[in-house]
Structures are given as structure tokens and as C-alpha cells.
């Protein structure tokens, strides 16, 4: 590659990525030269400001036309912009949680804590913009490897070690499967560029090759379900969530999951939508595989919601709850209606707000009591009414009660499922039934917070960073629940992500 | 689109009370109770004002409100209003009567809440939120808004039962949550299927879309005949949980016994009626053809409800359980009237909805007055109350008379018209149903006599009779029950237009 061609690229569209990369590099250097024992919490603010600037730069890029650079490996389209905003917002809130994270034994590697979030975020952002299997995979691995280390950051805490170990091993298996699936696609088309693959596959007429492609689809989906924490790769979630430091758990359940859906949407819609198949819809492999996705979505919702009923450890409970929510989003994907990407995006806005808010409260309580048992929530209403009220809002939203963002998100997903012909009645029925099941455990937390008395009467103090997160999330949850047009008017400018395949 | 905010004002004025309450220190018992009571008044005054104006010929359509709210995606190939949900409120005669009923019972229940013993602040905030939900349900102009208000009643009720109830309150709260959660889940599915396939959730537009052949061609996706039947049955189940129709009634017994009586006044007086309202408004309004096919089945369900409730009420030891089964039994009459599917039947059903609202509120008000003094509602432990509390005992007898359908009181009118309707269509079923009326007299008299007469089972010496603050709501309710009984035109007139529209929908 010549220098001249390199300079000609519109590097401006990568500004957000460069900012995150720069901040991460500077942070790691500062951390290296900072004297031991110095308070490193200032670094968190630095990282936060970096993420905030990157967020603003994405907003600045919103009017930019859809384009791609570096031989189509990096694209900036509506999809990338919309999801980058989500990832950045999620990461910013997680950094505020990390700032105030105080486990009982203290945390030794605070510097790493902050810049590893940034590298993980960078990986996720690369995934939203990738137009090539290679960059997609590199982004995925950057996210995964950073997360593996983050999960094990509480070095002297046994569960944290277990968590990191499980995460690495499961992640390794899933990565292998993803790569294996990709190799089929590469073998059939001879290209790693998504657009070229799509063109090649749309002329695929040989029955045997179509069969191979269907196999590749399933293997890829199974491999990627690791990041979504959906069936069949959900088993890691409870153990990893429980052992990892709480901000990391929050990161995994929100940012990492969003990134997982980003790669699923990007990959499957681009490659498989126009590929002919032998299945029920001869013109599209994606539509032919609908039933398989629907089956996995149904299984995810059922498993997540029913096992959550038995949990007494709140982090594990939220692990199963996050599995269930992945299932709901998969319903939106499996329905493949006009509103698919819109509904998934809105659901993640809601999910980000309500889940991060809940994790913020959970972090304060588990830091103070040293355990995540549900009984520590007892009497929260007396000990800190503000926390009790806001936690109430998050739980209502997670349960999908009207007046909260979670409700609108669910309504939109249902709309997608009923809009198509034939409609997905069975899938929707499973979703609504499991939602009612989820009332039991979400309201079980309510019972603890509002009805039960507690022996401890010492009031709980909220640190600054957590307070900001809680307020932002609570206000957002209510606001998007009552005036959802705020988000939908914003979405209008993307015109239903029609430039996805251009 | 216009500038009136009258209906919004009725619905959301309790919100002002919630905000004010937030600033009162939680130990100020008297202030909180007074404020909680005052906060229910604006809705009541405005609702009564609208009602009086309507009786004098005001056109209710002028109260309709509409504001843009949500749109789920704008597509170039669809019209602007497709998949848009507006904030739209409107009322007809039936809805206005229900709003007056709700506002009135809320005020009276706020008075009855003087017996609440702890955490008055949280109690009244949830109480007022519950009122907002109940009022909104009746004024909602589209299905999604209806559902949102419907669910707003769910959460405060869960807390009100679970925190301020009696011994098994948490179990009752969960039972309430799960049953009603399933009911509203089914309702949500029905609403969203209609919304997704027609592109609108406006009730009057939906009627058009479902029945006008020209409009049917414009659906987003087809709605087959089978689907319509499926949706109707789902609606029947969803509202059947709320009403409740017999196999789905277990939760409601627990709530009646465990919730604080002031809340049961609202629960039995208004919340159960939402089930009937929904069945009439949506079951009958949107799916008249399907309703006609199921009419006989619904009438039979009604008779089953009536008899089952009446027979079990006869065997109960707890006065609250007697009243709970009595509610089930009386809701059977609503179903009987609807099953008749003629003018008399529908009128009787709606009359019963309103009349039972007042009667059950009165009875539970008296329960709370009794419980305050005797600390029990078990029939075996009461007795001889007539000597110690002659006034209370008298009111109780009057309430029971109203409930068993004594001529001259509202219960009689509704039972009579409902049965009149059914006798025209299915005389045998109606004849079986009349056994229930006899049973009603039997179980109510048994319970009341047990409480008021006989030897005193406990020491009533230090017990004072009903006090002024308690007597006012009792008199208001009793007065209304007799007034409707003597002058049913006061209800028949506002309901006339609604009933006629429904009969039009049925095609004769």
C-alpha cells in the first residue's frame, strides 16, 4: 500500500476509535510511571472524559454519509453510528461504577481496571463498523481478551479466579466455533469481505454448497451465542457474573452483550439475507433459518427465567435475568420484521439503563455487606429510601411494567413478531409467559426491599460515581418509558438502517 | 385535536396529592390523612360536574382529547398515522358513570382509610396512584393506553395488599400479582396483535377496520376469521381473571380477606368492574359476531358463577369470605345479562356493574368498622352486636338487603333487568339461575343474623357505636343505593346511547 492512498482515506470517520485508542494508551503509560500506592481513581475520570469526547465525536459524525475506508474493512453507516452511541454510553456509566468499586479486600490493579475497559470498548466499536470477517474477528477477540483479564482482577478472591478461568475456557471454545464457521464461508466464496461474500453467495445454486452454508450459519450462530449469553452458550454467565468484580459484570451484561448482537446482526444480515437456500424460503438463507433462531430464542427465555427463580445470590439472579433478556432480543431478531433493527436498538437503550442502574445499587450493597445474598436487600426501604425507590424503578422496567422503558422495548419487539405474515404467535406466547414468570423473581426482590425488616439499621451511603449512574439510569428509564418518542424521533434519521447493504 | 384538558385533569389530579404528600414528614398522621382525602376531591367534583352537564344535554364528544405520543417507526410506504399511538382520551355515558363511581368510591375509601395503622404516607401515595390508574382505564381512547392504565393499578395494589394487609398478606399479594399478571399478559398479546396487524390501536378505528370490508383491505397483515375467534377467547380469559369468572377466581378470595378493607372497597367496587367494562367495551364492542356465538356459553358461565358463589358463601365462617363469594356470585349476574345479548340484558349487566360497586363498597366499609371494634370477622366469634352498636348493625342489615336485591334498592333493578333479558332468550338457564337469588337471601341473612343477634360472644362494653366520620360515607352509599333503586332513570338515561351503539354493532 502506498503512502498516498493511505493518506487519502477519510480517517475522520474513525475519530471515536482513535480517541479511545489514544486514551487507553496514555492511561496505560501513566499507570506504568505513576508511583505505587498513589490513588489511581483520577485515571477513571480521565477515561470517563475520553469516552465522553468519543461520544460527542460520534454525534458529530451523525450527518456523515455512509462510506467505507481501508478496502471496505471499516464502514461508517447508520447501524455503526447508532450502536456506537450505545456502547459508549454503556462504557461511560460502567467507568463511573468502577470508580467507586470497593471490594472488601481492596483492589490492587486499579489502573488496569480502567484501561482494559477502554480496550474492550475499542474492540466492540470496531465490530460495529467492520465490513470484513478479519476485522470483525479481531474486534471480537480484543473485546474477549480484555474481558477475560477484567473478570479475574480480584486476584486474591477465589471466585474471581474461577470466573476468569471459566470465561477463558468457554470463550476459547466459542471462538474456535466462530472461526470454524467463518472458514466455511471463506471456503465457499474465497473472500473475507462481507460485501463480496454476499455477492458471491447470492449466486450459490449448488444444493451441496447451500447445505454447507446452512451448516456454517448454525456453527457461527452457536459460536456467537457465547457473547449474547444465549442458549446454547449461556452456561458460563452465572459463574462468571458472580465471580467477576461488579462493574465488570455490568460491562459483560450490557456492553459486551450489545456488541454480541451487533456482530450477529452485521454478519447474518449482510451475508445470509440474499443467499438462496433449500429451506422454507428459497430466496433467503436467513429467512430459512428463522425457525432455528426462534427455537434458540424460546429456549433462552425459558431457561433464563425459570432458573432465575431459584437464585438467592443476586448477581447470579441477574445473570439469568440477562440470559432471559438476550432471549427477548433474539425474538426481535427471529421475527425479521421491518422494525427488527429499530426494536433491537431501542430494547438495548432500555436494557442499558435499567440493568446498569440495578447493578449500581447491587454494587453498593454487596460492597458494604461483603456478600450478594438477597437477604442484604431486606429493609433497604428503611435504610436508604432513595436507593429503594430507584431500584424499584429498575426492577419494574426489567419486568416490563408500563411507564418504564422496558415496557416500550417489549411492546416494540412484540409488534415485530406480530407484524409479519405468518406471525410468530408461539414465540410471542413464550415471551409473554416467561415475562410473567420473571415477575416472581423481580418482585421477590421487591418483597425484600419494601416488606421485610432488617437487623441492620445503619444507613447506606451512596458514593458520587454510583449516584450519578443511578440518577441517569432512573431518569432515563422513566423518560423513555413515558416519552419514547425521544428515542424514536432520533431513530428516524437512520431511516431504518436501509444503508446496511449498500 | 383541541384544547380541552378536562379528562386529563380528572384523571391526573390525584397526582397533585402525591407530590404534596412527598413533602409532608411521615410522622404527621393527621395531615397525611387529611391531604390524602382532599386529593381525591378534585376528581370527584370534576366528574360530578361533567355528569350533571351530560344529564343536561352536553355532548361528551367535545371532551375528547388527542395528542401525538409514540410512533413505532415511520415508513415511506405507510401513512403517517400507521403504528402511531396517540395520547387520546374520550368518554361515553357508560365510561362517565364508571368515572363518577370510581371517584366517589375513592373519596369514601380515603375516609375509610382512617383505620390504617402505619406508614400513612406510603399508603396514601400508592392509594392515589391506584386512583389515577382506575380513572384512566375508563377514559382511555386506545387499547395501548387502556393497557397502561390497567397495569398502573396492578403495582400499587401489590404493595397495598402486601404491606398493609392482614396475616397472610404477602401470599395474597403474590397471588394477585401472578393471576392478574397472566390476565394482563394475555390482554397485551391481544392488543398488540390487533395493533400490529391493523396499524392502529384506536378503539373506534379498530371497529371500522375489523368490520368494514373496504377497510379490511388496508390491513398491514390479514386477520383471519379463526384469529378473530382466538382473540375473542383470549379477551374473555383476560377479563375473566379480573371479573372473576369461576375457575379463575382463587386470587380474588385471598385479596378480599387479606387486603385492608378500605382497599377492598376499591378492589371490589371498581377493579373487578374493570373486567366487566373491558368485556363489554372490547369483547362486545370489537367482536360482536364472536360474542353472539358465545352468548349462551357466557350466560351459562354466569349462572355457574352465581350458584357457585352463593352456595359457597353459605358455608363460610369468615364474614369477609362470605362477601368475597358474594362478589363472585353477583358478578355472575353481569355475565347473565351479557349472555342474554338483548337490550334488557345489557342494561341489567351495566346496572349491576354500577350497583354492585356501591353495595360491595358499603359492605366492606361496614366490615372495617366492625373489625375496628371487634378485632375479628369470624362469624362464630361475633354475635349480639345489635345491642352494643345498634346503628352499625342497622346499616349492616340495610347493606345486606341491598345486596340480596330488595325492591326499592339498586340491586333489585339490576338483577331484575338482567334476568328479564335472559328469560327472553334462554328461559331454562334463567330459571336455574333464579335459585341463586334465593341462596343470596339465605347466606346474607345467615351472616347478618349471626353478627347482630344472638348472645354476645365477646365483651362489647367498651365498644362505641359508629362515629360521625364513619357514618357520612355509609349514608352517602346507602343514599345512592336507594336513590338508584327508586329512580333508575338517573342511570338508564346516560347509558342509553352506549347500549344503543352496542346493539347496532350486534346488528339488531
Automatic annotation (TrEMBL), chain A:
BP terms from Gene Ontology: ATP synthesis coupled electron transport
Transmembrane spans: 12-30, 42-62, 82-101, 113-128, 134-153, 165-186, 211-229, 250-272, 292-310, 317-338, 344-365, 386-405, 425-450, 462-483
GO cellular component, one term: plasma membrane
Family named by the database record: Belongs to the complex I subunit 2 family.
Pfam families: Proton_antipo_M
Organism superkingdom: Bacteria
UniProtKB keywords: Cell membrane, Membrane, NAD, Quinone, Translocase, Transmembrane, Transmembrane helix, Transport
Organism of derivation: Thermaerobacillus caldiproteolyticus
Quaternary structure and partners: NDH-1 is composed of 14 different subunits. Subunits NuoA, H, J, K, L, M, N constitute the membrane sector of the complex.
HAMAP family: NDH1_NuoN_1 (MF_00445)
Phylogenetic classification of the source organism: Bacteria, Bacillati, Bacillota, Bacilli, Bacillales
EC number of the protein: 7.1.1.-
Record-given protein name: NADH-quinone oxidoreductase subunit N
The keyword Cytoplasm appears for this protein: no
All residue ranges annotated as the NADH:quinone oxidoreductase/Mrp antiporter transmembrane domain in the record: 130-429
Catalytic activity from the UniProt record: a quinone + NADH + 5 H(+)(in) = a quinol + NAD(+) + 4 H(+)(out)
Role, per record: NDH-1 shuttles electrons from NADH, via FMN and iron-sulfur (Fe-S) centers, to quinones in the respiratory chain. The immediate electron acceptor for the enzyme in this species is believed to be a menaquinone. Couples the redox reaction to proton translocation (for every two electrons transferred, four hydrogen ions are translocated across the cytoplasmic membrane), and thus conserves the redox energy in a proton gradient.
GO molecular function: NADH dehydrogenase (quinone) (non-electrogenic) activity; NADH dehydrogenase (ubiquinone) activity; quinone binding
Encoding gene (name): nuoN
TrEMBL record, chain B:
Keyword entries, A-Z: Membrane, Transmembrane, Transmembrane helix
GO molecular function: NADH dehydrogenase (ubiquinone) activity; NADH dehydrogenase activity; ubiquinone binding
Transmembrane segments: 6-24, 36-55, 94-116, 123-140, 146-164, 176-196, 229-249, 270-288, 294-315, 322-341, 353-371, 391-413, 425-445, 466-487
Domain NADH:quinone oxidoreductase/Mrp antiporter transmembrane: 140-439
Pfam short name (any one): Proton_antipo_M
Membrane topology note: Multi-pass membrane protein
Subcellular locations according to the entry: Cell membrane; Membrane
Any one of the GO CC terms: plasma membrane
Principal location class: membrane
Annotated InterPro entries: NADH_Q_OxRdtase_chainM/4, NADH_UbQ_OxRdtase, ND/Mrp_TM
Sequence similarity: Belongs to the complex I subunit 4 family.
PANTHER family listed in its UniProt record: NADH-UBIQUINONE OXIDOREDUCTASE CHAIN 4
Protein's UniProt name: NADH-quinone oxidoreductase subunit M
Organism of origin: Thermaerobacillus caldiproteolyticus
